[in-house]
Amino acid sequence: MLDISIHANEPAVGNRDTDQVCQQNSPDRYQIDGCEVCLPVRVNDAGMLMNIFSVDSKVAQALIADTGFKVVELWPGKALMQLLAVDYRENDLGDYNEAAIVFPVTTPGESTPLPLIGAMWRVLRGKLANYVYRMPVNQDFTTHAGRFIWGFPKWVSDVDIHFNEEQASARFNDEGQLVFEISAKAGGKTKAGAQRAPSLAVRNGRAWKTVGITEGEGLRFTMGGKAPIIGEQHPLAKKLRELGLPKKPLCSVSMKRAKLLFEGPECVDIGQPFGR
Questions:
Q1: Which residues contact 78 (CB under 8 A, 6 or more apart)?
Q2: Which H or E element spans position 140?
Q3: Entry pTM
């Protein structure tokens, strides 16, 4: 089972260490477990769903205390957190499912948004960086690629995602134990224009920043939503309960046909400001 401490050693993938099976050949070319990956990485078709919650800001900040980042408070005592899942159907890194626990944060030197309206406005418009606290996936190759290229905290687990005309749902189990199950209304007709948003991660004692671009069709935004199902025994599920879940999200989002593009990362020492 994955150690939930921030600087835990990465679990091996099939008894192979990521840094031993990957190398960078040039600024935009990588050798990942015997295959070449060129940047930017493109996703031509994916299904996405997300729930956004208010959670206990002291607990959230304690979870990320060693990152150099600061959780964004929606109002005093309440931080923002996202539970999300992506079904990558057509992707340079293969066909796989992914889940994530994400905290919108500010980085060293960055201004803090105004409570409530300022925080939500910056989140929904991609103006805040999202710190990826955990990112389970169900395939080996994307685990190596995500770790080595962008520093994402990936490991191989069990992530199931389902879309139909009215509902999207995702279930994340780790070693047979439920961590979370989320849902969102689907069937949206709205198109989403291209939006840039930075993601943050911590790996090998450094902070990593990656700008992603997302656009697509079938977008549906709903205020509120169904409360997630949270596991009882898994360490990550227990952390989600300490944060205040299960409860209804502030809002829910789904996109049936998304396109994404991931650029190369910027990497700095923990606690140092990024250059861009």
A1: 54, 55, 56, 57
A2: helix 140-150
A3: 0.94
CB-CB contact of 210 with 150 (8 Å): yes
CB count, 10 Å around CB of 196? 12
CA distance 260 to 47: 11
**Distance between start and end Cα atoms, the chain:** 36
Query: If you ran DSSP here, which 8-state letter would residue 141 be given?
Result: H
Task: Please report, in tens digits, the pLDDT of each residue of the chain (276 residues total).
Answer: 555 444 456 888 988 999 999 999 999 999 999 999 999 999 999 999 999 999 999 999 999 999 999 999 988 999 999 999 999 999 999 999 999 999 999 999 888 887 777 776 776 677 789 999 999 999 999 999 999 999 999 999 999 999 999 999 999 999 999 999 999 999 999 999 999 999 999 999 999 999 999 999 999 999 999 999 999 999 999 999 999 999 999 999 999 999 999 999 999 999 999 986
User: For residue 56, which phi and psi values (nearest 5 degrees)?
Assistant: -65, 115
